[in-house]
Design brief:
The complex is a heterodimer of chains A (310) and B (387). The longest helix of chain A has 16 residues. By secondary structure, chain A is of the alpha/beta class. Chain A is built from eleven helices and 14 strands. The chains are: A alpha/beta (310), B mainly alpha (387). At the A-B interface, helix 2 and helix 3 of A face helix 1, helix 2 and helix 10 of B.
């Protein structure tokens, strides 16, 4: 039984290779309807490839599944009708105006009143007064809003956003996420890939993918809990010296500076505590045990996966 | 909410017209892009006009007003009469009259003149005695086409001139090559032949390149990714990209034929409607071939190269430059595969011979076949995924 009422994306064992290099390996995932699903992972980890498989732009070498209840292999055309895909690179027509781009999309999807639909979307995007401006002349933030507008115009049931906020300023990023939450509240399912931790924390569920392997998924809390990472936060003097001293010690998996503090993390609590013991009582250093941040978890996952797959 | 998101009945209904609707969306988009690309837009009009004016006037296998010099070693009535006759042919323009051999040689050597005519001392007397003296003609043969054509005409025209000269009974034999030449002004024939040919050649070039770049441009600009993620079929993309340029091609054909008739006095003896109809077929065939190229290559540079690879044989093997019948059989077979070959026959036949559809069935059928073939290849080659 697939395509159940509550599931928008349900895929199993997706594998895709390019020129003998496996980009996506045995990837399985489920995304609930109406949820915002964050896709995280380093560059070249297979996020874009996975998204392209989901919207029918690539055919998987093996694996199967459904997207909105349609088979991803057989029903690519039907999926395309109900999926809005926002590419990583701006892919609207730069030499068409805002209005013309939106009208093109509206006509292609067969909206009853293409001009009206485009006009409403321009209003909704706050682009009134700029409708005749060429899309290529818009700033990064506006381009990204327009791209989102273009892919939500045909009222899709699923949005696939590939690093939508890359290179966009914080204010525009926040507005963008508010928009995404508003869309999800209306029942739209959103799959979004990102590099930003604050964005990951705004997702209902996240998945971490590295070198084509989906390593962990769940809510932010679940992912942190699954990591079984123990983290100590250190503040005080000469943290650089401490970094150098602790790096590579048994049990210390990661030492990372966070502003004025240092995060020291490890999966083996006993070994970690043994290694840091000599510095625990040192004057000028303040230690306290915290839960690891999402970033700690991901950096640790990334360094671990590098050992496994490279 | 159902397990599968089914489109509404209204949506299903609209889906029946989906083909036209999506082709239309694509067509409008292409039109806007074309209109916005001012350089391309200007080229649509300028290219045929410039080329036609340039080639129509410039390409002339029988050049005239060639700068010439005369070395006059006697100032006789006969000599004057010959020079006058030469000038009246409009082939030669005597810009120098010299009396010294060295001056004569220098003029030729420096390229100031292409021809030199030497009338030797005692020429008239020798002619009267029937000695058949030599009338020396020196030609700058570095451009053999210019030289040979004019030399050929020279011989005949001088003979004709001398025949009418009251001093002479029989013209002397001339010590230079004489080539058969048309009786009426050959310059007019050149453009009569060239203008209809240019219609086909210019259309081949512009149409081919316009569509050859269309798909690769979308790939290079990254818009293909988003286009492919939308519900549009390869045939719809193709029609949307071809139809705007059919109108462009039509405009070009109209310009070329208009100028040909207005400026070069090329007649249109046949049916203008038939000409327009078959020109549209030819335009569409070329657009389909260009579009096919577009689906075969990786980038715009390759598209240009492949277009040139197609364009050059089109010019050389179609009968535009060299007579089709004069080519070896294998080259003729190759030529039959080129749309330009068939269109040249069509356009020349309609314009110059007043031919009707009954004379042109084979070429029309050949064009239509080539068009369908190209479209089939294009649609099957069009990648619906990014694999």
């Amino acid at each position: 039984m697939n395509g159940g009422n509550g599931i928008a994306i349900d895929v199993k064992g997706l594998t895709k290779s390019f020129g003998g290099r496996e980009v996506v390996h045995d990837l399985s995932m489920q995304v609930k309807r109406g949820s915002i699903y964050g896709f995280l992972g380093p560059n070249g980890s297979g996020k874009t490839t996975t998204i392209r498989i989901l919207c029918g732009l690539l055919t998987p070498d093996s694996g199967e599944g459904t997207c909105l209840g349609y088979d991803i292999r057989r029903d690519a055309e039907k999926i395309k009708r109900q999926v809005g895909y926002m590419t990583q690179r701006f892919s609207l027509y730069q030499d068409l105006s805002v209005r013309e781009n939106l009208e093109f999309v509206a006509r292609l999807y067969g909206l009853a009143d293409a001009r009206g639909a485009a006009r409403d979307m321009i209003k909704r995007l706050g682009l009134s007064g700029r409708e005749e401006q060429l899309a290529g002349e818009l700033s990064g933030g506006w381009k990204q809003r327009l791209a989102l507008g273009a892919c939500t115009l045909p009222s899709p049931k699923l949005l696939l956003l590939d690093e939508p906020t890359a290179g966009v300023d914080p204010k525009a990023r926040r507005d963008f996420w508010n928009e995404i939450h508003a869309l999800a509240a209306d029942g739209l399912t959103v799959l979004v890939s990102t590099h930003y931790m604050d964005e990951a924390e705004r997702c209902h569920e996240i998945a971490y993918i590295a070198y084509g392997h989906l390593l962990v998924h769940g809510t932010v809390e679940e992912v942190i809990a699954k990591s079984a990472l123990t983290t100590y936060t250190v503040t005080g003097e000469d943290l650089n010296g401490l970094t150098a001293a602790l790096t590579g010690k048994p049990g210390v998996d990661m030492v990372a500076p966070f502003g004025t503090s240092l995060h020291v993390s490890g999966r083996d609590v006993a070994a970690l505590e043994a290694s840091i013991a000599p510095w625990r009582e040192k004057s000028g250093l303040h230690w306290h045990k915290t839960s690891p941040s999402l970033e700690d978890v991901f950096i640790e996952l990334m360094s671990r996966s590098k050992d496994n797959f490279q | 909410m159902s397990a599968v998101d089914r489109p509404s009945p209204l949506h299903e209904l609209r889906e029946r017209f989906g083909f036209w609707r999506r082709s239309y969306a694509m067509l409008i988009k292409e039109f806007i892009q074309l209109r916005r690309d001012r350089v391309s837009f200007a080229m649509i009009v300028m290219l045929p006009v410039m080329q036609l004016l340039l080639f129509g006037y410039a390409i002339n296998t029988t050049p005239h007003n060639l700068p010439s010099a005369v070395l006059l070693q006697e100032d006789s009535d006969l000599a004057r009469s010959i020079l006058k006759a030469l000038e009246n042919t409009a082939y030669f323009r005597f810009i120098y009259e010299v009396h010294d051999v060295d001056d004569f040689d220098n003029l030729l050597k420096s390229g100031k003149v292409l021809f030199g005519v030497e009338i030797p001392r005692g020429f008239e007397r020798a002619v009267r005695r029937g000695d058949k003296p030599a009338l020396l003609v020196a030609a700058d043969a570095t451009d053999p086409v210019a030289a040979s054509a004019a030399m050929g005409s020279l011989g005949m025209l001088v003979q004709t001139a001398l025949k009418h000269d009251l001093y002479i009974g029989d013209p002397p034999e001339m010590p230079f090559e004489i080539r058969a030449h048309a009786r009426y002004n050959p310059a007019a024939v050149s453009s009569l032949n060239i203008v209809p040919g240019l219609v086909g050649t210019i259309l081949t070039m512009t149409m081919l390149i316009f569509t050859a770049l269309s798909v690769t441009r979308e790939i290079e600009r990254g818009t293909m990714e988003s286009l492919l993620s939308m519900p549009i079929r390869p045939v719809e993309v193709m029609f949307g990209k071809i139809i705007p340029y059919v109108l462009v091609g039509f405009l070009q054909a109209f310009l070329i034929i208009g100028i040909g008739v207005g400026l070069f006095g090329v007649p249109v003896l046949g049916n203008l409607f038939l000409l327009a109809l078959l020109s549209t077929l030819f335009i569409t065939t070329n657009l389909a071939i260009g579009y096919t190229i577009s689906t075969l290559v990786q980038n715009q540079l390759q598209a240009m190269q492949m277009s040139m690879m197609f364009f050059l044989p089109s010019i050389l093997l179609s009968g535009f430059m060299f007579p089709f019948a004069g080519m070896p059989a294998w080259a003729q077979y190759l030529g039959e595969c080129l749309p330009l070959t068939h269109y040249l026959r069509i356009v020349r036949a309609i314009m110059l011979k007043g031919a009707g559809m009954q004379n042109l069935q084979f070429d029309t059928l050949a064009l239509a076949t080539l068009m369908l073939l190209a479209m089939t290849v294009a649609v099957t080659r069009f990648r619906r995924t990014l694999d």
